[in-house]
Fold carbonic anhydrase.
Amino acid sequence: MTILSEIISYNKNFVEEKQFEEYATTKFPDKRIVILTCMDTRLTELLPKAMNLRNGDAKIIKSAGAIVTHPFGGIMRSIIIAVYELQADEVYIIGHHDCGMSSIDTDNIISHMVERGVDNSLFSTLKYSGIDMKDWLRGFSDVTQSVKSSVDQVRNHPLMDRSVPVHGLVAHPDTGALDIIIDGYERIDDK
């Protein structure tokens, strides 16, 4: 049995038994927050529990390392939409200790791409087109600095509402303990 067939089989029972009913909510976050965090598997259930979040409480965006990589990329677009259209009044950037992005080896990733069939000559074409693969795939060496950088990008974005607090935290992936790096309430601009 494939993973997909296991998922579909389980899903059929989930729907037939109406197990979805306990998760019913709206598209608007009850706690009016949007969270950008890492896609690390250890945080999937741990982080919401550690923050006392239930289904429907928050918009949660996940990316490798909880990094805002581009001011007009998909992550920033999602945050902007959450604030202006989906009633989020606060932003939380939550990195974590022992993140895979802190030890990422871009050369290794590129070699894995080639091993799995990506034509090596494509990287020259991308470089010629202005895309630096090492920069695009880069991680960070210090999670605290990475969180601060992402908070700064969100807070200082030209389209961001300056009255929205943008918080920066670092989670411990084993315990769920949260360390405040930036308290967004201390840095909001009054209208």
Q: What stands out?
A: The first strand starts at residue 33 and ends at 38.
